[in-house]
Amino acid sequence: MGLLEGKVAVVTGAAQGIGLEIARTFVAEGAKVVVADINDEAGAKAEAELGGADVARFVRCDVRDSAAVETVIDTAEEAFGPLGVFVNNAGMTRDSTMRKMTEQDFDDIVAVHLKGAWIGTRAAANRMREYGAGSIVNISSLSGKVGLVGQTNYSAAKAGIVGLTKAAAKEVAFKNVRVNAVQPGLVRTPMTEAMPERIWEQKMTEIPLGRAGEPSEIASVVLFLAGEMSSYMTGTVLEVTGGRLM
């Protein structure tokens, strides 16, 4: 029996990167997963890689659109059964110093990360409270704890996700719906590996464990929060950073 045997999960932004690794981990632990993403080509590939329509479905979804998010949950429930896990992972970056950042860059990041997480949390909680159980996991960032240069938009949105998580957790705990968050630090992905070497090395000096994290190390913590091993945890924010910026 896997840790998520028989569970139905939705993971946003799951066509690639950390989101795909979360979906992959969930399937390996017995869950049926809906991959929600705006990238049609990557989403179709993810569905096939995860095992096809019997265990995974790709549904195109812009997380800023509440109707689209509801459609994703409807698809998950029609295909696999009652929703048990929802992961708000979708995101992007528009890095720039505050002086150069446009209002559109700020608005877009807040809309995808913070409003998107709010829409997903609200929609998932509304279903789960009717079932008397469920786990929602929101992906924040170390940037939302300490603030990083060039990320006033991203840091603000990721800090907002922490507040959202704690407030939502208090609202739905009486229905046995749990809401927790994960704050990854430097994780080895194609995006981070494209950093200039001097920036990468500077970040590495801040990590006591002396290395970047792997997507699977984020996914395993999300798995913990999604399943029954964390059944007495809600409103919690777990840092997965190798000890960086403690």
Describe the structure.
Pfam families: adh_short_C2. Its EC number is 1.1.1.100. The chain has 246 residues and is an alpha/beta fold. The protein has a single domain (8-239), classed as Rossmann fold, CATH 3.40.50. The protein contains 9 helices and 7 strands. The protein has helices spanning 17-28, 40-50, 66-79, 103-131, 143-146, 152-172, 190-193, 197-204, 215-226; strands at residues 8-12, 32-37, 56-60, 85-88, 134-139, 177-184, 237-240. The chain has a 7-stranded parallel sheet, with helices on both faces. Helix 4 (103-131) links the parallel strand 4 (85-88) and strand 5 (134-139). Helix 1 crosses helix 9 (215-226) and helix 3 (66-79) packs parallel to helix 4. The longest helix is centred in the middle third of the chain and has 29 residues, at 103-131. The mean pLDDT is 97.
- In one word, what is the shape? globular
What CATH architecture would you give?
3-Layer(aba) Sandwich
In angstroms, what is the radius of gyration? 17 Å
What is the share of helical residues? 40-55%
**H-E order:** EHEHEHEHEHHEHHHE
Spatial gap, N to C terminus:
36 Å
Return the average pLDDT rounded to an integer. 97
What name goes with the CATH superfamily?
NAD(P)-binding Rossmann-like Domain
GO molecular function: 3-oxoacyl-[acyl-carrier-protein] reductase (NADPH) activity
InterPro entries: KR_dom (IPR057326), NAD(P)-bd_dom_sf (IPR036291), Sc_DH/Rdtase_CS (IPR020904), SDR_fam (IPR002347)
EC number: 1.1.1.100
Keywords: Oxidoreductase
